[in-house]
User: Fold this.
Amino acid sequence: MRLTTLIQDLPVKKIQGNAEIEIRSITQNSKEVKPGSLFVCIPGFIADGHDYIPEALARGAKALIVEREIPLNSDIATILVPDSRRALALAANRYYDFPSRKMKLIGITGTNGKTTVAYMLKAILEENRKKVGLLTTAENIIDNRITSSKMTTMESHDLQKAFSKMAACETEYAIIEVSSHSLSLSRVEGCDFDLAIFTNISDEHLEIHENFANYLESKKKLFLALNNSKKDAYSKKGIINIDEEQSHVFLDCLETGALTYGIKQKAMFSARNVVLNLKETRFRAVTPPRGEMDIILNMAGTYNIYNALAAIAAAVSEGVPLDIIAAAFRKFPGAPGRYKILDYGQPYTIVVDFAHNFHGLENILKTLRLFARNRVITIFGHGGERDNRVRKKMGQVVGQYSDYSIITADNPRSEDPADISKEIESGMREVQNVNYSIILDRVEAIDHALQIAQEKDIVLIAGKGPEKEQVYHDRIVYHNDEEVVHQILQKRNKE
Assistant:
């Protein structure tokens, strides 16, 4: 594609050199540059892409997008823009021929629940014989091929490339988790969404957003994107949890249709006759104008009713019959690493869950407390290089709802796990009659919990869910909570 065509959507400040050249690829990673590439220089949080221009040129880059003027001794094509992140997204969108316009695109945003809603909706649409692509925190699925996920929402170039692959194999629906980071960093700029779903919001991720107001504004961008669609605006919907205090922010910014769901406030989609136990949830879903249906979820928790209502609202808006929706839920095994009960014949219950912030921990621990016939034992930690203000809250929540807690490592990254544990411990100490220990080795922490677990206890292993690695400052080691549990119990059964 000619560079002049590629940059026609960009707010260009200045063009230097020949813009009529052919571009063979786009990248923001200098190590991925090939002869004929357009290299987009992005000022990052750790490194600045402008510093890698010499490497990009040595690898064969034929053009640059920059945010500041760069003195070069060559006549290489250079495009000066005010925001190179946004420029990368828009250029990649055009390079791959606007792939999100060739399928129905569903974006899900919220502090918690994104992955579960995505998998619920995938199950429903596939039950309705639709071909579905999925891009989530847990994994990515394109043309039924599963690959690991490195982040909640891909960088913009990778995202458009993934959409292009979906379009090439005639995918009908693409479902993606849209993180606040991706919205504030323009990763989904130019994506043509058909449905936008808001699950919930809590005081999180301020390591990026600095304050709650900025965090909220970033989430709102997904719904503003619905207003700028190139598709039929009439068919677009914002789907919003009306029970959330900030729901009006999302409703007020919509110029398209809106659907609400909830349990407490008056909502278009709601649940009644709720019956919960440790392994199952049953409720009557009210879905005007279609009527009502009985839903059986193979998981517990009021928060999962909210997740189900979000998926139901989206499915109904897409014309999926109620019997298809109910059938999909009966078969739904759950999302990877979310509320997964491990049964190896032990006399106590083990639950693995991705809950990694105080809001998610409170949701699942409140649920487990409802069914606890003995103690609740919780193993948890907090990721390094994340908003450390929430660590005290996590300690308070886990200390309040657990009988015994073990603070351990959860991807400490460049931070000292001991320092993270102390910040969590400060919250623990504010809880009366709290009982806890600190075991920084996660395998040892799980082993200790299973060693002291008694009949009818519930052991919650929280934070990592389906993850298969533990990230330290100097190494990455293989680790999966479910596999660790299996190995420990298998070894004990042989002894």
